[in-house]
Amino acid sequence: MKHVSRRHLLQGAAASGAGGLISSSLFAATAAAAPAAPQATAATGHGPVNLTWLEENVPARLAAGATFGVPWPRGALDADSDFALTTADGSSVPVQNWTTGWWPDGSIKWTAHAVGDGRDHAEAYTLAPGTPTQPETALSVKQQGSQTIVDTGVIRVTFASKGPHLIKKIERGSTVIAEHGTLVAQRKDQPASDAAEKVTTEAFTARIDEVTVEQEGPVRAVVRITGRHEHGNRRWLPFDVRFYLYAGSDGLRLVHSFVFDGDAGTDFISGLGVQFSVPMRGEQYDRHIRFAGADRGVLAEAVRGITGLRRDPGEEVRAAQIAGQALPDPSTWDQRVTERLHWIPTWGEYSLTQLTAHGFEIHKRTKPGHSWIRVDADRRAGGLGYVGTPSGGLAFGLRNFWQLHPTELAVAGAETDAATATVWMYSPKADPMDLRFYHDGLGQDTYEEQLDALNITYEDYEPEFGTPYGVARTSELMFWALDATPSNDEFADLAEANATPPLLQSTPEHMSSTGIFGSWAPVDRSTQARAAIEDNLDAMHAYYVGQTEQRSWYGFWDYGDVMHTYDGDRHQWRYDVGGYAWDNSELSTDMWLWYHYLRTGDATAFRYAEAMTRHTGEVDVYHLGDWAGLGTRHGVLHWADSAKQLRISNAGYRRFYYFLTADERVGDLMHSLIDADETFLKLDPYRKIREDEYNPDPSALAVSNTTDWGSIALAWLAEWERNGDEIAKTKLLNGARTIAAMPNGWSQGGTLKYNMADGKFAEETEQTVEVGSLDSVFGLIELMTELVELLDEDDVREQWTTYCRLYNGTSDEQREATGHSWGSQNLRQSYSRASAYASVQLSDPDLAARAWKEFRTGHAGYPEGHDFSTRRIEGSAVLKPVDEADLSTNASAQYGLAAIQNLALIGDHLEESN
User: Fold this and answer.
1) pLDDT tens, position by position, 747-770
2) What are the Cα distances from residue 133, in Å, to 87, 95, 110, 218, 310?
3) Name one Pfam family in it (predicted).
C-alpha cells in the first residue's frame, strides 16, 4: 500500500489539551530558544537543592564544563523560574539554566544547568530559585558569512557550513592551535578473515549537510553538524556530531554518532576517526608528544630527543625537555651536542593502539616508508594524547577508550610544519568490522522451520532480517587547545576528565521527594528484612559489574550490554546460543540499573547504566530504513534476531539519562520514536503465526494494548514532559482513556483496533481476555504508575488497578471481574509489584501481604533464601578464573524492579507480612 504519513493522517484531527507545539529542531531545549512552557498554576516555591560530584572527589579538571539535570516537585516552581548556583561558603557560580521537563500543570519538572571550567571547583553546591550569576566573560556565538564562530573567552572555534572540514580552526589568542578538523573513515571490500587475494581500500572524509546552533550561551554553546562520509560518487555513513563549548574553558567536547547504511557483505569499515591538523612551531626538539597510560601514567617524549645521548647537552637543557618547556638557546648547550643536532633522528609519527580491552601498545617511527619501533605497552590506556610545543598544542582523546576497542590515538608529521592528530574510534590497525550474519540459515527457509528452530536455540531467525543496516553507535571525544605543553600531572588531570567527565547530582532523597519516575525510594536498611533485600540488590548489581570485567563484555559494538543467560556446564554465558546471548534490554534490564542508581546515588551504578543507555539506544535499534524505530530481540549478534520490536527501542529506557544529563543525542533518540506506530504499516509482528493476509489499516492497526502500546506510550510521555509534539500527548491520553473504556481494560483480548491518527483504540463491547506474562515487563507498569497520577482520571486509575490486582489473583477473582480465568501466568514474582500497587490504590493491607508473599515465593525469579553469593571457578575447568552465581538477567532485572517498587509502595508491611 502507499505509505500515508502521520501528518497527512492528522490533518483535521483535533489535538486536545494545553501545551506548546515546537519543531523537532528545537529539542535541545536551549536557553536562547526554549520551547514555550504550558500554562502554569500558581507555584508553591521550593528551597535549595544540594549538589555534589558524582564521583565524590573534587575534579581537578572538567571535560570543558559540566551539564546536569535536577528534578522539582509538581507545582513547586513557575515555568519562568530561574536559578542561582552557590558554593558552601556562599560564593556565586556562573550558571546557565533551561527547562527540560514540565508537569501537566505547567510547573517545572526538570531543569538542566551548565557550569564552565573555572578550575576552582567546590566539593558541594546549592541550587535554588534566583538570579543566575553571569560568567566574567560570557561565551559568544557569531555568524560571520557562512561561518559560525564560538568564543569561550579562552579559545575561539570557527565552524564551517559546507565542505569536508567541520572545524576550520581553533585559536587561542592569536595562535592557531588546530585547524581543518574533519571526520575520516576507511572501507575495505573484503574482511580480514577470508584471506582474499585482493583487497580494495577506500578513504572517506566528511561532507557537511547542515549546521545548527542549538544553544548559544552565556555559559554553554552547542553546535550540531550533520552530513555523510564521501569518496568519489559515494556518500554513506551518515553522521550527527555535536560540539560543546563552555565559558572560560579551553576544552571542546564532541559527541559523535553514525549510522551503518552499507552492505554487510561488501562494506567492511576499517577505520573511523576525527582528525585535526596541528601547526608545529619552533625547533623539533621543542615539539612534544604525550600519551596517557593507566593510573595517571604518562608517556612524555620529544620529536627530537636530547636525553640519553652520548654527549650531554646539560642538566638544565634535559630538564626543560622532560618538562615540555622551551629549551635554552643551543648556543648555551655543550657544543658537542649543538653541532650534531642534525644527526639525531626526528620521530614524527606515534601510534597508541588499544586493539583489545586487555592491552595497548605504543609505536613510533621517523616518517612514512620506515619501520615502526615499539615504545612500550601496558594493559589499559587512559585514552588521551597530545602533540604540540611550549607555545601551544592539542590534547585529543576518546572516552571509554579501552572499553570500546579497537581504538587508536595517532600523530603524524610532527617533524613538519603541521602534525596530524587523529582519534580513531575504530582503529585501521585492527581487522575491519565484519557485520555479516554469523550462520548461513541452517536451512530455515519456512516459518514452520524457523519456529521449530526457535524451540532449540531460542533464536527467531529469518533470512535477510539479521542485518546491521540502520544500527548506530555514539562516541564521546574531548579536545583541549592548550597554551603550552602540559606538565605530566596536568596531562593526567585532563586524561581523568576525558575518561570520567565530572557530573553534579542531587541526592536520592531529593529526587525521590519530587515524585519523578514512579515508585521508588532511597535505600533503607532500618529493619532486618529491609536490609536483607538491600543486600540482595547490591549483590546482584555487583555481580553484573564484575561479570562485565571478568567476561570482557567490551568492544565497539558490544560495550554497555550484558548477557542474557548462563551455561553452568561450560561455566560460561551462552554467548553463542541464539536468543540466550546478548540481552538487548530484555525484560527492562536498563530500568533496573537506573532505579538502582536513583536509590543509591552510587557512581559505579550511574556509569554502568550510562554505558547501557549509550549502547541499547544505538546498537540495538534501527535508525534508518523500513525498520527505523524498532529494536532487535536478544541474540548472538545485537541485530541477529528476526523479531524487530518496539519493546526494545523503548524510550522509557532512555528517559533517566536524558533528564539527569540533558544529553541531546538521547533526546533525539526518544523524539525519533514518537511515530514508531508507523512501523506496523511496514512489518507484521505476527507474520510467522498469522493465518490471514496482512493488510494493515492505519485506522485499525493490530496493536496490543500492553507491550506494544506501553512501549510507544513511553515515547509519548517523554515528548509530553518535554513539551514537544502536541500529537504525542494527544495519542498518549487517547490511548489510555480508550483502553480504560474497554470492558476489561488492559486485559481486554480480541483483535484490538488502533487508530494511528489520534492514538485511540476502537470501542470494545464484548468482555474478552488476553493476558501474557510479558505484557507489563517492558515498562508498562512503570509507565502507568506515572501516568495514572499525571492524568488523575477515575476510569484509568480503576481499570489499571483492576489489572494489577487480578494478574496474580485467583481464577475465581479473575472470572468475577472479567468473565474469564487468566490461566496460569508466568513471572509472578515480577508482578508482585502490580499487587503492591493495587494494595496502595485500594488501601488493602491483605493485598499488601499477598504481594510480599508473591515476592518471597519467587515464581520465575528468586525465592526468599536464594543464594546471591558467587563461587570461584578456576583451574582447568575454565579458561581463566571466574565468579559465577545462580542468577539470570531476566530474573535479576525483574527481581530488582519488584524489590525496589515493593519497598517503596508497601515497605511498611514487610515485617508484618512474615
Assistant:
1) 999 889 999 999 999 999 999 999
2) 12, 6, 20, 10, 58
3) PcRGLX_1st
